[in-house]
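Practice problem 4.
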């Protein structure tokens, strides 16, 4: 039975989704969430479902592809007149080829892109049109050096390569999650309203330098309520293992710093220069 469904999964997916295109326009729909193989057989019925969703004024589309990345999300089915109700778009492992004169998705307040088959220019054009974004998630995407989104409050950048200065022109940003290479301290000076910060750095060359940078970065968030700083350091031939972390708590605010290491000389603990935190050091070894 398992082999049968594995072999005929696209066929059954198509049959199960065809009912969606036959729904009456008056049927209230809010969200369309699909995970499929990206095959040609599935793509046709998926595009029909998206067109039907646009006619129903759907507000949330979540789509993920596994297996093939040839599938291209049909943004043209969500024309300016139809996409006014679309406020959330989550796409994973597919193509999104927008032209230079693209002008859609202006109503989006949330955009999630996960390992999309897009050029850096296409990502820039897309973000330029999403002027009302409140939440932006970029995971495994091209390096975006400049973000100008005045209404953005939440930014998540994971496994995104970064080299040099990263400019974030988002004065109202409150939550930031980042995983990648170490960023200059000046990066965080342009976003003073951050309340929740999680930074994971993956540098593996100068751990002592990175520890000093973390201490500097910890002073860049005057309004922070929760702060998590973590960096990875290279593996060496250890004489023993030791893991260190520091936890700082003040009422509802909290800060967490961890440095995973293999030798005692690689452990770095610091006390942030902020009077708003009580501190408590923890060492495990």
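Answer key:
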């Amino acid at each position: 039975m398992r082999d049968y469904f594995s072999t005929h999964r696209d066929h059954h997916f198509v049959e199960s989704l065809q009912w969606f295109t036959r729904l009456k326009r008056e049927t209230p729909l809010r969200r369309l969430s699909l995970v499929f193989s990206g095959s040609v057989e599935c793509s046709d019925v998926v595009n029909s479902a998206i067109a039907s969703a646009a006619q129903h004024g759907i507000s949330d589309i979540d789509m993920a592809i596994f297996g093939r990345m040839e599938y291209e999300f049909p943004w043209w089915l969500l024309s300016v007149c139809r996409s006014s109700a679309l406020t959330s778009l989550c796409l994973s492992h597919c193509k999104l080829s927008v032209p230079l004169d693209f002008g859609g998705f202006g109503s989006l307040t949330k955009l999630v892109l996960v390992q999309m088959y897009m050029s850096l220019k296409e990502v820039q054009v897309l973000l330029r049109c999403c002027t009302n974004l409140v939440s932006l998630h970029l995971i495994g995407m091209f390096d975006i050096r400049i973000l100008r989104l005045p209404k953005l409050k939440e930014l998540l950048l994971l496994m995104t390569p970064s080299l040099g200065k990263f400019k974030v022109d988002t004065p109202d940003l409150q939550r930031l999650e980042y995983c990648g290479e170490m960023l200059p301290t000046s990066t965080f000076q342009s976003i003073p309203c951050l309340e929740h910060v999680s930074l994971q750095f993956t540098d593996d060359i100068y751990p002592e330098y990175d520890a000093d940078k973390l201490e500097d970065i910890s002073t860049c968030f005057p309004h922070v309520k929760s702060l998590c700083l973590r960096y990875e350091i290279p593996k060496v031939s250890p004489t023993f293992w030791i893991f260190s972390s520091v936890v700082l708590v003040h009422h509802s605010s909290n800060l967490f710093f961890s440095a995973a290491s293999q030798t005692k000389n690689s452990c770095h603990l610091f006390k942030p220069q902020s009077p708003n935190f009580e501190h408590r050091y923890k060492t495990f070894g």
